[in-house]
Amino acid sequence: MQKLTVLGTGVLGSQIILQAAYHGKDVVAYDLSDEILAKLPERWEYLRPLYLRDLPDATDERIDAAIARIRATSDLADALSDADLVIEAVPERIDIKRDTWAKVGAAAPEKTIFATNSSTLLPSDMADATGRPHRFLALHFANEVWRNNTGEVMGHAGTDADAFEAVAQFADEIGMVPIRVKKEQPGYVLNSLLVPLLDAAAKLYVRGVADVETIDLTWRRATGAPLGPFQIFDVVGMQTPYNLNKDSDDPEKREFAEILKRDYIDQGRLGRGTGHGFYDYA
């Protein structure tokens, strides 16, 4: 699959776009307005030094060639017109995702395979909205895709085996290690392991048991992990944990969401991508 369309150009969407282009794919970047898309060059220049720092084969020339393979549009029909694969990275709300996929299913060519990058929702939660559930599955990326290079491939009971394998092959072709998830599981493999850690850290903080730095230090020193949970929150960005916790039945999770909104999001401290989160970054 050579021609990729990515729906949503936020933190993770833009990473998927550049990663695929870096590995030679022709990529269409879609978002709702030209004003949003006009910010993409800034995103490429933010990612450039990270690629140069972390990848031994990265050069300015290769990154320039990748950027040249990216085309941006706010016209959905245009974005989908020749797509082999569509990856959706829109906000983590089922109503937004189902509405997006209904529009995509009505406009995409018959050949197109559909993949959601949802972190928390199951493919079966939205597959029917496409009108082509047999061509629908999940391809889940970890943040900082050029470094944490796994692509979790997870279908639902109605996903065609050939579509599943085509997406696993695509993940391999863009530098990911394909993780074939054999059965639908909320959180895939990665988040099934990671989310309980982050929830536990948030509750320790809300309860006043320890401060951010102490919680992170404890986890790093005791396990040998490179990052503590609040450093991981900074990589993920504040908006995702806020959205996941603000309407929780658990009062401590709601309180954590309120802290994120008041002390971080409203202060422009959105995570490592903006230079400021729980920590400050050069």
UniProtKB/TrEMBL annotation:
User: Which residue numbers delimit the 3-hydroxyacyl-CoA dehydrogenase C-terminal domain?
Assistant: 187-281
Q: Which domain of life is it from?
A: Bacteria
3-hydroxyacyl-CoA dehydrogenase NAD binding domain: residues covered = 3-182
Quote the Gene3D superfamilies the UniProt record gives: N-(1-d-carboxylethyl)-l-norvaline Dehydrogenase, domain 2 (1.10.1040.10), NAD(P)-binding Rossmann-like Domain (3.40.50.720)
Q: Which GO terms describe its molecular function?
A: (3S)-3-hydroxyacyl-CoA dehydrogenase (NAD+) activity; NAD+ binding
| Key words, A-Z | Oxidoreductase
**What residues does the record give for site: Important for catalytic activity?**
H140
> Which family is this protein grouped under?
Belongs to the 3-hydroxyacyl-CoA dehydrogenase family.
Name of this protein: 3-hydroxyacyl-CoA dehydrogenase
Instruction: Name the species this protein comes from.
Output: Microbacterium oryzae
